[in-house]
UniProtKB/TrEMBL annotation:
Residues 247-714 form the TonB-dependent receptor-like beta-barrel domain. PANTHER family: FE(3+) DICITRATE TRANSPORT PROTEIN FECA, IRON III DICITRATE TRANSPORT PROTEIN FECA. Signal peptide: none annotated. This is TonB-dependent receptor. Its main location: membrane. Keywords: Cell outer membrane, Membrane, Receptor, TonB box, Transmembrane, Transmembrane beta strand, Transport. It comes from Flagellimonas yonaguniensis. It is a multi-pass membrane protein. Residues 56-164 form the TonB-dependent receptor plug domain. It comes from the Bacteria.
Amino acid sequence: MRWLLTVFSTMLLTANLGLSQESNDGKDSTALKTEILNEVIVNGSAILGSKFEAMNRTGSANYISAKELQKFSYNDINRILRNVPGVNIYEEDGFGLRPNISLRGTSPERSAKINLMEDGVLIAPAPYSAPAAYYFPTIGRMQAVEVLKGSSQVQYGPNTTGGAINMISTRIPDRFTGRATLSAGNFNSKNTQIVIGDSFKNFGFVSEYYNYNSDGFKNIDGGGNTGFDKSDYLAKFRMNTDEGAKVYQSLLFKIQFSEERANETYLGLTDADFNENPYRRYRASSEDVMDAEHQQYQLTHFLKLSQALSITTTGYVNKFKRNWYKLDDVNLGERVGINNVLADPETYAMEYNSLLGNTDTPEDVFGIKANNRRYTSQGIQSIARLRWGADWLQSLELGIRYHEDEEDRFQWVDRYGFQNNELIRTTVGIKGADANRISNAKAIAAHTLYKLNLGRFTLTPGIRYENITLGRINYGTNDATRSGTDLSERENQVDVWIPGIGANYTFTENLSVFGGVHKGFSPPGNTEGQDAESSINYELGTRFNYHGIQGEVVGYYNDYQNLLGSDLAATGGTGSLDQFNAGEVRVSGVEVSLNYNLLNNSSEKVRLPLTFNYTLTDTEFLSSFDSANAIFGEVSVGDEIPYIAKNQFNLNLGLKHKKFAVDLGARYIDAFRTQAGTGTIPTNLRVDSNFVVDMSGRYFYNSHFTFSFNIINLFDTTYAVSRVPAGLRPGHPFGVNFSITYGL
């Protein structure tokens, strides 16, 4: 830690030596302020900051702007990311509360193999020690979303195989701004957002309240709420020097708090019950609920020493606590997990019938587990950026981060039985008797990225370093007070260099080619000696504009030397989170993105923009192994990775006018297997393909009022989205919301 502080001090001292070398005297103050504020935005919270930057990376990158997010006003990150090629997702709750995101074929479970960030800071509950994303930021309050893949994301870790997603929260405006949005729809869904902010000469602020809730679209046998209620509170305060100062500085403090109560369950449906009524929920899930709270504190110092040199330093603390109280097993003489019951209801006929709650059961038949956990993620990171050169434009980025996180599990199981169609608790579990341990991680990460621009040619070599210590302290299930009478500990360390290089060549202003190669990495678990996930990843692509058709086509090949799987309850496992080696794997694919105005600028008043995105993902295990995890099972050479659709596309058609806008979005997802295998997918291990259409419309009444509607699943298509955590689960049925927005 001491040497880390020395590095920070050295960076700041080196920067300050250049204070007297350059001056902004004589420069237009308005232009300077705009430039400074843009620098703060880009360096403080964004990776890309604009579509222009995304289109000029030497690797794949996508920037989803505020205008694009407003098209459908989605609160579900799953639906937003469908517009990005190379993204594979399987849904779980229909509202995007806990998404499962894969970038370029990484394991999608709980988005654990990609970097999730908010305002440039890792946002998963414990990114190193327990990265499964049981918390996900409220996407409805975000101002932009950035997605990086390939060599574009070597700067961001610890996961460098698939990519990174950075969500940019509401920014401090440059003038007084107020906005209020009220929405209501079927399933008693409601949404409220209030934003107020302003900037002065040396001070700026923004505050935001965001709530969305619903009674849910599923129906519990016997009645009950299957929805959720989530509220977010955000405030940012910025102090800054005068805009014409020789050395510009700003200090930004961000505080965020959210609370959620979701009546969600791991219990799905058997195939027969899904075919009869996909929105049914068995009575045995009536007590299932998650209570969660999240806190974020972030302090960012921005120092612009000259037009060539700037340093951004951020300290952060994220805290998350949750207790997901949910049905886990059925015990009629032998404990059977709910996943096994629903996968084979004939073998476990007695257990299945007990889930229905139509008859009384003995006491203690059902185990409802209190998955009680607390997470802490904290650290400090600093990035210095230097630009120089005229004919040869060059830049250098140096970054360093010290990070600590931990997951504290203190879980128990209560036993229940049915009496008169009501689930009654018959035994109160002993707290800590199911799990009583702390997993932790300490990591020092550093990176450097050099960029050389020689006219038409751009080269970006970079390297990342990760030094990680992962540990676990297990107090045992008989030591609720954690006195240490039955203590066991283990530790694993990893030290790795992660190089990468990207290049871009511009033939004309309408045609360029880019490509790169980089090392893929994901941290191992805390089992001593366990290897990290590693791969070598290649990509080659082109960006073009041909007679108004703008597009990008990318091919990639990810060669895994060692793929890691995780034992998650969310995928039918035991929930230990222990990782296991899955051997050599090949993932390759093609990503296509096309944009075209059907009117081809023939009308200045009306536009008909058309967007098409296509993703081909091909996966293959190159080694055999056996796994107790339900989604892998017994794997043979040639098998495909489960929960990765081979083909998917998204088509958006818009009608734009200065007074109104209408958008129609259609997405297709190929059938995918739910267990590793090859050839024809067995019915009981398959999620069928689906084609879903959404629609939205906005009417700009005047400069203050906007009226809008949003329709999810326009044709009320019935479709399944997954077979995990336990049984088939449906996608969102027809849903409509009407909104009114007032803005200053």
